[in-house]
Specification:
Layout lengths: L5 H45 L2 H23 L5 E7 L2 E3 L3 E10 L5 E11 L3 E2 L4 E3 L3 E10 L3 E10 L4 E5 L2 E6 L6 E5 L4 E6 L5 E3 L20 E8 L11 H7 L3 E7 L4 E6 L13 H20 L3 E7 L12 E7 L2 H12 L10 H8 L7 E7 L4 H10 L5 E5 L15 E3 L2 E3 L1
Parallel strand pairs: 2-12, 16-17, 16-19, 19-20, 20-21
Antiparallel strand pairs: 1-3, 3-8, 4-7, 4-10, 5-8, 6-7, 9-12, 10-11, 13-22, 14-15, 17-18
Length: 427
């Protein structure tokens, strides 16, 4: 189990207090500047009435400086456009991405002193840049100087050590007049999304392919892996066993039966991210990450072999969950796009708490799956509820169990008959 370092929390709290104090100082300084400008205006009127040329010139110059400062504070940066972008937007753990902060000044008024703050995830690491940390985020400070109607960008290589969906931004800027008397804050709302996939290891699973005949109880064994489409004209390369004698006799020529193959190898992965046997044990992040990585690696291996793979898991708390935001249910499909969907869901997987919903999901979804689909249950431990769900699924499907935690014979249930333990090996 992992907790935040108390030293990091104290440092983040201290940084937050310093920022709040700096904000109060800037507000007090701004009020003092306004009072000083009012006094200068009164003094200038008095000097004009007294016809004191030197005092009038000095007060006029000081008032002009304050006027320029007020004009920058009031109008500078109103149309300032700030954005942050990550390239690429999808990476795996351990990979780096390009972080780009862009500031565009569409107005004619130049911005000589511009301090830009980009709000980033707290775990981000930026090469060659010093980050300031608050309790919930990291702040990247970048200096800019922009002429009128110009834009500038700053790029850096960054990385995130953990999987997940991260928000980069928003960006805020502090504008200063040419004399550096007062700063004005401008904030933007634009953010960028970065998805960090879990690590995918090279492994191979000893998962037998569904056979067209046998081990399918209660079903016909004649051409079970095909659907009859209709007859077509005979060709010399066709097998004689495919000849449709009824159609051949009716039409006076040889015709053969044609079929559409539908029973390609397919696997449904049922994932249980609950890492604690008992409620007081909390969340074991090491076991959780191992479970997610095993599921991602297994899906990558099976899809790479041309199989259809589906994923059923609880604990996905984002829009990827669809109509059921606390569970992800993706039926078996093939192709790289399917792998991207599964990795996206696994990247956003979070511990669902102390409630184990996998047995309930299996009891709901397994009867809806075709009989040739393999069932693979991936869980840290085998509970009694999961044992019952696996036993029921084994009546109609080939079922495998893949444990990702350390087995405790005194607390874990036994693997039910008819359920195989999935053997996974590194390649």
């Amino acid at each position: 189990m992992s907790n935040r370092d108390p030293a990091d929390l104290r440092t983040a709290a201290l940084a937050a207090r310093v920022q709040a104090r700096q904000s109060r100082v800037r507000r007090q300084y701004g009020r003092s500047t306004d009072r000083f400008g009012l006094l200068l205006a009164i003094g200038l009127v008095f000097a004009v009435v007294r016809a004191d040329a030197l005092l009038t010139a000095l007060l006029g110059v000081a008032l002009a400086v304050l006027g320029v400062s007020w004009y920058y504070r009031r109008f500078a940066g109103e149309q300032l456009d700030m954005s942050v972008r990550a390239t690429p937007r999808r990476i795996f753990q351990g990979q780096t991405f390009s972080l780009e902060v862009t500031v565009r000044n569409p107005a004619r008024l130049p911005l000589p002193w511009l301090r830009v703050l980009a709000h980033l995830p707290r775990r981000v690491e930026v090469d060659g840049q010093h980050l300031e940390y608050s309790p919930y985020e990291a702040i990247l400070r970048l200096p800019f100087s922009l002429p009128g109607r110009r834009s500038a960008s700053r790029k850096a290589e960054a990385s995130l050590p953990q999987r997940g969906l991260y928000a980069l931004g928003p960006v805020e800027a502090y504008l200063s007049d040419p004399f550096g008397l007062r700063e004005t804050r401008r904030s933007g709302d634009e953010t960028a999304r970065l998805l960090v996939y879990p690590q995918v290891h090279a492994l191979s699973a000893d998962l037998r392919r569904a056979l067209p005949i046998g081990d399918r109880r209660g079903r016909s064994f004649l051409d079970e892996e095909t659907h009859y489409l209709g007859p077509r004209a005979y060709q010399p390369t066709d097998s004689l066993r495919r000849i449709d004698w009824r159609q051949s006799a009716r039409r006076g020529d040889l015709f053969v039966k044609t079929y559409e193959t539908v029973a390609t190898a397919a696997t449904a992965l049922f994932l249980d991210p609950t890492t604690a046997r008992d409620p007081w044990e909390g969340i074991d992040t090491e076991v959780l990450e191992r479970t997610v990585e095993v599921a991602a690696s297994l899906a990558n291996d099976l899809i790479g072999k041309g199989q259809a793979v589906g994923l059923y898991v609880t604990g996905v708390f984002t829009a990827v969950g669809g109509r059921r935001p606390f569970s992800y249910r993706e039926p078996p499909r093939t192709g790289p796009r399917q792998l991207s969907r599964l990795l996206e869901a696994l990247a956003q997987l979070r511990p669902p708490g102390l409630f184990r919903d996998l047995p309930r999901i299996m009891l709901e979804e397994v009867p809806r799956l075709p009989y040739h689909v393999h069932i693979v249950a991936i869980a840290p431990y085998l509970t009694a509820e999961l044992q019952v769900a696996l036993l029921r699924a084994s009546r109609s499907h080939k079922v495998y169990f893949l444990p990702t935690g350390e087995r405790d014979p005194l607390r874990d249930a036994d693997i039910p008959p008819g359920v195989r333990t999935l053997a996974v090996r590194a390649t």
